[in-house]
């Protein structure tokens, strides 16, 4: 590692610390750090900014952008709220059934949405339904955050870290789904059992509730645009088909961009408004982050890190899976999981030579690490903010005493499961 590599590594560490402090916008900091890295590469190697930019994985960035477009259109259509209300009306106001229905629905949509849009879509809806039947919404909000994260394990589009890891670690999508879907279902069953026991006293109505009020709301009211509603259903079907048919070797980024651009075309005059509401901060955060990573790759820092870790782990499957789960999952739970995914994805690619299950451990670790503490990730803050706005705040301890033990348990179960699968597959 030369002097330029050391400086860029220091810049990365400083960037992560500043992001952790939450005093400066993370996107602004990532872009500033990327610009400084570009200057260092120019001074050290004569790299022009154009050459530096070309080192970045634009296919991954465009892939994430395309999926954010799809999610934005689907969420704005009211499709998910419509389905949720149809399901909730079948609970007949039973608090436990409402809780189970919300969790099952969040589990399903988390296969298609990142935890952040999941909470943006479901958070306000959850609060309003619970207020209508005089049910404490805080346990449901906390539980939704937890389930939204681990339910995304098997899905390419379930979270932004998943997108990064799948692409950079060259993970086979059908293989990942077959391995990780049973794990998500196991964790869902275990989590539901524990949460229902933990919240048995909270899942009761607070007063003279009339659940029939839910029947006064027509599910069709939730649909903000019938055009986008049907367009979203068609787009989701095409995406699932395109991502899962392995015989057609079309890059996932190309499929996603074709679907996203097609949705914008058929959105007609609403396309401009939809693009304005896109999560541009996430996109530019990735641009800045991948710029820093490109600098680390150009100065061989990533290569030396991967080589050193490979020498330490060797061919030990236990160490490989343990490292990929516990480092991002528990040790680095304070740090945003997107940069952790980007940093460790090249290592996942190399460790995949030991066993194909190893890169999947990184998906588990980065997703679990996001929900252990309330300020660990944006979806957590959405839940906390919604509760505070309604005058029923969720304290740090209220959130952590539920999420931290569950996260630790999820890491333990996932480690044992993945080691067992790896040994079976040989």
Your description of this structure?
With 426 residues, the chain is mainly alpha-helical. It contains 20 helices and no strands. It starts with a helix and ends with a helix.
Spans where pLDDT lies below 50 across 5 or more residues: none
What's the helix-strand series? HHHHHHHHHHHHHHHHHHHH
Count of DSSP-assigned helices? 20
Query: How many beta-strand elements?
Result: 0
Which percent band covers the strand fraction?
Answer: under 5%
What's the mean pLDDT score? 83
Secondary-structure-based class equals mainly alpha
| Spatial extent as radius of gyration | 22 Å
Percent of residues in helices comes to over 70%
| Amino- and carboxy-terminal Cα gap | 35 Å
Q: Give a short account of the largest sheet.
A: none
Assign an overall shape: globular
List the helices and strands and how they pair.
Blueprint: H1 3-21, H2 26-45, H3 49-54, H4 58-76, H5 79-88, H6 95-109, H7 115-132, H8 138-150, H9 160-168, H10 173-198, H11 226-244, H12 252-266, H13 271-276, H14 280-298, H15 301-313, H16 317-331, H17 337-351, H18 358-368, H19 378-389, H20 396-425
Helix pairs in contact: 1-2, 1-14, 2-14, 4-11, 4-12, 4-14, 5-6, 6-8, 7-8, 7-19, 8-19, 9-17, 10-20, 11-12, 14-17, 15-17, 16-18, 16-20, 17-18, 18-20
In short:
The protein has 426 residues and is mainly alpha-helical.
Features:
426 residues; mainly alpha; 73% helix; globular
């Amino acid at each position: 590692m030369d002097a330029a590599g050391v400086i860029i590594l220091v810049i990365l560490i400083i960037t992560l610390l500043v992001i952790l402090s939450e005093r400066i916008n993370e996107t602004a900091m990532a872009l500033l750090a990327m610009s400084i890295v570009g200057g260092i590469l120019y001074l050290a190697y004569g790299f022009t900014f154009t050459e530096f930019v070309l080192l970045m994985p634009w296919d991954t960035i465009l892939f994430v952008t395309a999926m954010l477009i799809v999610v934005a259109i689907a969420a704005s259509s009211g499709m998910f709220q419509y389905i949720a209300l149809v399901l909730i009306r079948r609970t007949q106001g039973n608090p436990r059934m409402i809780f189970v229905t919300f969790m099952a629905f969040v589990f399903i949509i988390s296969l298609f949405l990142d935890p952040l849009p999941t909470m943006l879509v479901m958070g306000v809806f959850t609060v309003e339904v619970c207020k209508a039947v005089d049910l404490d919404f805080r346990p449901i909000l906390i539980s939704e955050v937890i389930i939204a994260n681990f339910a995304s394990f098997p899905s390419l589009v379930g979270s932004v870290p998943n997108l990064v890891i799948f692409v950079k670690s060259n993970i086979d999508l059908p293989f990942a789904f077959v391995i990780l879907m049973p794990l998500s279902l196991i964790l869902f069953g275990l989590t539901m059992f524990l949460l229902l026991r933990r919240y048995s006293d909270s899942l009761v109505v607070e007063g003279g509730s009339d659940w029939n009020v839910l029947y006064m709301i027509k599910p069709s009211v939730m649909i903000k645009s019938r055009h986008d509603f049907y367009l979203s259903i068609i787009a989701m079907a095409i995406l699932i088909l395109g991502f899962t048919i392995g015989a057609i070797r079309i890059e996932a980024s190309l499929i996603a961009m074709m679907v996203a651009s097609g949705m914008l075309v058929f959105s007609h005059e609403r396309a401009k408004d939809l693009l304005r509401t896109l999560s541009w901060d996430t996109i530019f955060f990735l641009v800045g982050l991948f710029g820093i990573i490109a600098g680390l790759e150009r100065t061989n820092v990533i290569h030396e890190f991967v080589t050193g870790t490979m020498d330490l782990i060797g061919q030990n499957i236990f160490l490989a899976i343990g490292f990929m789960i516990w480092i991002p999952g528990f040790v680095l739970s304070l740090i945003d999981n997107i940069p952790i995914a980007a940093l460790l994805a090249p290592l996942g690619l190399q460790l995949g030579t030991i066993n194909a299950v190893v890169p999947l451990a990184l998906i588990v670790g980065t997703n679990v690490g996001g929900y252990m503490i309330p300020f660990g990730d944006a979806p957590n803050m959405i839940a906390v903010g919604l509760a505070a706005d309604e005058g029923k705040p969720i304290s740090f301890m209220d959130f952590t005493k539920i999420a931290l033990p569950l996260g630790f348990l999820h890491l333990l179960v996932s480690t044992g499961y993945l080691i067992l699968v790896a040994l079976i597959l040989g």
